[in-house]
Amino acid sequence: MTDGNGVNALSLTARQVVYTNKSFWRNPASAFFTFAFPLMFLVIFTSLLGNDETTIPGTDVTVSTSTYYVAAMATFAVISACYTNIAISVSFQRDAGILKRTRGTPLPGWAYLSGRVVHAMLIALLLVLITMAFGVAFYGADVPTGAGLLRFLVTLLVGSASFAALGLALTAVIPNADASPAIVNASILPLLFISGIFIPLGNDPPAWMTVIGNVFPVRHFADAMRTGFLATVFESAHAANPRVPLSPFDWGDVVIVGLWGLAGLLIAVRFFSWEPRR
Questions:
Q1: Is residue 111 one of the residues assigned to a domain?
Q2: Whole domain around residue 68: which residue ranges?
Q3: How far is CA 236 from CA 37, 62, 204, 239, in A?
Q4: Whether the Cβ atoms of residue 277 and residue 176 lie closer than 8 Å to each other
């Protein structure tokens, strides 16, 4: 696919990623807190809950609380970068008329939005790497290797793309920029709690939490990220006791997250608005 000047789609998207990245780093306060929040929550939760053993949901395998939260905060970082930030920032740009002016330029709309999505995915990857490095340096967390690393990276790729699409879809129901933080947080914060990201749910959560968690993508994404990240923990447990499953990783979780992302993409294509709401 090319435009009149022979510039291909990949080049257009890459250029927009560069422009978006420059804009991102030119707002150092926003960039700082984007990277600080996952690490801040990691330190807070591990300090409050101590470093005791925590049972990984759905298994009988235990892991230190700090290691559990390294995986959980990596998941939170992806959702924050790809869902929360995109939904709020795009809503503000729409109200400021930036999207309308961009729509009036020769730049195709798909290239602009693709650039924002790819940039968000790259920021999510960088956040995950920083969170993992922090966990290894200060909490002795194990880094996934081999098949576990592959599963973790595939989950990260599918999850970041899907939550970015869902963030764009959510802008269709946000009436104005002032309402965007409230609507975005109301749509995601309860799911973060009932999906075991902020507080481990154990093996016997309330039935209603299980039902809601199974419907929405956050819990499936959290489970896939956690089991991929903690692959070495499961391998060690299996070596000590062969009756313990080698890995509870379920590709079905990744598929469900991907289907939610596809639904978000279709909604965004149909209902995305370039002009401010009146």
A1: yes
A2: 9-271
A3: 31, 11, 24, 5
A4: yes
